[in-house]
C-alpha cells in the first residue's frame, strides 16, 4: 500500500507519519470519571467558604479550566476563576491539605478509587480506529497529562496499540509544561523521530487542541464528546468528529 492510500484509509492528510492521541475522552471513557471527581472535590471544598465565588462546579468549569491540564494547573486556574487563593503546598501534601497540591491529591484519590472499583472502558470506535492505524503501519503515541496513564491504558486493554507514552510522570521528570503548552506533544514527536509537521494530534480538550496548534502539528483532530465543537474549532482543531471511527472512509 502506498503512502497516499495508507493515509486515505485512516482519513488523514498524506503528510502524516505518526498519530499522537490524548487519553481521557479520546481513547477511554475516563474523562467522565475525571469530571465527576473534579466536581465532587471542588463542591466539597467550596461548601461553606465565604471568600470568592462559591457556586457549584459545572461542566463548563471543567471544559474551560481543568480538562486536559496537569492537576495542579487545573486547580490553580479554577480557583483563580472564582477569586480564591490558596498556598501552593508541597509535592507530598496529603489529600486533606488546604493547598493547591492537596486539592489535586484529593481529586486524584477519588479517580483512583473509581478506576480500582469499576475498571476502565475504551471507546469501541477508538479501539477500531487504533487497530486500523496500526494495521496501516502508522506509529502511535499516547500523550496525557495524567500520572495514571499507564494504569489506565493497561486496564482498558489498549497498551499494545500505543508504541510510545508521554504522560504526567514524564512531564514531571523532564520539566515539561502542561497543555495548552505543546511541550508534551513535541516530546512525543521527538521520541518517535518525526517532525510536528508530519504528525497528527487527537484531542477532546480545548487545551489539547490549542497545544497541537501551537506546536505546529500538521493536523489536529478535535473529538467532541461534550457538545463543544465550536470551542474546539476556535482552539485550533482542523477537523472535529464525535468519535474517532468517524474518520474512517465509509463510516
Automatic annotation (TrEMBL):
GO terms for molecular function: beta-phosphoglucomutase activity; metal ion binding. Pfam families: Hydrolase (PF00702). It is an enzyme of class 5 (isomerase). Its cofactor is Mg(2+). The keyword Isomerase applies. Signal peptide: none annotated. The keyword Magnesium applies. It catalyses: beta-D-glucose 1-phosphate = beta-D-glucose 6-phosphate. InterPro entries: B-phosphoglucomutase_hydrolase, Beta-PGM-like, HAD-like_sf, HAD-SF_hydro_IA, HAD_sf, PGP-like_dom2. Its EC number is 5.4.2.6. SUPFAM superfamilies: HAD-like. Belongs to the HAD-like hydrolase superfamily. CbbY/CbbZ/Gph/YieH family. This is Beta-phosphoglucomutase.
Amino acid at each position: 500500500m502506498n503512502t497516499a492510500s495508507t493515509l486515505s484509509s485512516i482519513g488523514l492528510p498524506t503528510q502524516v507519519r505518526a498519530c499522537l492521541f490524548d487519553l481521557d475522552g479520546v481513547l477511554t471513557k475516563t474523562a467522565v470519571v475525571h469530571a465527576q471527581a473534579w466536581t465532587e472535590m471542588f463542591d466539597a471544598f467550596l461548601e461553606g467558604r465565604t471568600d470568592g465565588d462559591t457556586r457549584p462546579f459545572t461542566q463548563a468549569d471543567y471544559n474551560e479550566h481543568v480538562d486536559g491540564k496537569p492537576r495542579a494547573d487545573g486547580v490553580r486556574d479554577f480557583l483563580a476563576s472564582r477569586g480564591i487563593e490558596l498556598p501552593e503546598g508541597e509535592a507530598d501534601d496529603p489529600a486533606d491539605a488546604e493547598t493547591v497540591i492537596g486539592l489535586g491529591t484529593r481529586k486524584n484519590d477519588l479517580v483512583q478509587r473509581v478506576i480500582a472499583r469499576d475498571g476502565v472502558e475504551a471507546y469501541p470506535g477508538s479501539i477500531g480506529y487504533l487497530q486500523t492505524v496500526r494495521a496501516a503501519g502508522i506509529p502511535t503515541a499516547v500523550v496525557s497529562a495524567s500520572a495514571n496513564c499507564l494504569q489506565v491504558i493497561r486496564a482498558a486493554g489498549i497498551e499494545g496499540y500505543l508504541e510510545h507514552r508521554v504522560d504526567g510522570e514524564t512531564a514531571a521528570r523532564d520539566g515539561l509544561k502542561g497543555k495548552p503548552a505543546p511541550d508534551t506533544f513535541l516530546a512525543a514527536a521527538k521520541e518517535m523521530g518525526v517532525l510536528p509537521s508530519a504528525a497528527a494530534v487527537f484531542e477532546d480538550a480545548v487545551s489539547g487542541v490549542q497545544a497541537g496548534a501551537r506546536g505546529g502539528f500538521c493536523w489536529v483532530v478535535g473529538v467532541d464528546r461534550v457538545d463543544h465543537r465550536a470551542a474546539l474549532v476556535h482552539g485550533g482543531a482542523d477537523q472535529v468528529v464525535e468519535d474517532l471511527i468517524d474518520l474512517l472512509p465509509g463510516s
